[in-house]
Amino acid sequence: MTQPTLNKQRIVILGGSAGIGLGVARAAVAEGANVIIASHDRKRVDAAVARLRDVASAGVATIAGHAVDLRSAAEIRELFAAIGAFDHLVFTAGEELLLSSLAELDLAAARRFFELRYWGALAAVQAARPHLAREGSIVLTSGAASRRPHPGFVIGASICAAMEAATRALAIELAPIRVNIVTPGFVETDLWSNIPADARAEMFRAAAAKLPVGRIGTPDDIAEHYLGFMRGRYVTGQALVVDGGGVLV
């Protein structure tokens, strides 16, 4: 029996210019998929497209990039109208984490934080649905804070849990399109860039010492599991924790 492949599949990755999204794009291109990435920063999008073209074998995959405000439902609708038919949607977009104790939490900032990670994701699914292949898939992004939050993670944990609940509901509503979600743990990406470099390095060091795998994750570690959901034709409504064993310790 032949194994499912993403070769020649058309994949849209929102948030694909950096971090986990770029890792997913890189892995998909290496498998021969035609990849479209979108993010808000034109320079980052163009740089990511150039890097992906270096990965692609000549003539095997096509790569395109769009600069889009993923907080804007109107811009997202325009993007998918321009893209047309495709096979898989991946949503990895996210800004730096909002870390704050409840006592010091700025509720207005907390509400804004939901605009991209939650409402942006729902707007993307809504706009993408008419263009998605019937046998296609959607892969969303959560975080291990939904399972094991740390102090200061009340907003991050809330968004992650909401996204996992939305995934299960969407898997029922959008069937037979498959909807799943990847739940990463500590991964070294720009999402932590609002933490001073020394404090970030110490946080990663301390986390790595506790993890059963003994290290922090990389975008490439996580990317394969997005591809697995895209390939996996008999799985939907599921959240896969990819955290080096962090929820166990």
3D architecture notes:
The chain is of the alpha/beta class and 249 residues long. It is 43% helix and 17% strand. The protein has helices at 19-30, 42-55, 73-83, 107-128, 154-173, 197-210, 219-231, and strands spanning 10-14, 34-39, 63-67, 86-91, 132-141, 178-184, 239-242. It has a seven-stranded parallel sheet with strand order 3-2-1-4-5-6-7, with helices on both faces. The chain is globular and about 50 Å long.
Percent of sequence in beta strands: 15-25%
Query: Main β-sheet: number of strands, strand sense, barrel status?
Result: 7 strands, parallel
Instruction: Order the strands across the largest sheet as they lie in space.
Output: 3-2-1-4-5-6-7
Total domains: 1
Second rung of CATH, namely the architecture: 3-Layer(aba) Sandwich
CA-atom Rg in angstroms: 17 Å
Stretches with pLDDT under 50, minimum 5 residues: none
CATH superfamily: NAD(P)-binding Rossmann-like Domain
For this structure, the CATH topology is Rossmann fold
Element-by-element helix/strand order? EHEHEHEHEHEHHE
Question: Averaged pLDDT, please?
Answer: 92
CATH class annotation: Alpha Beta
Tally of strands: 7
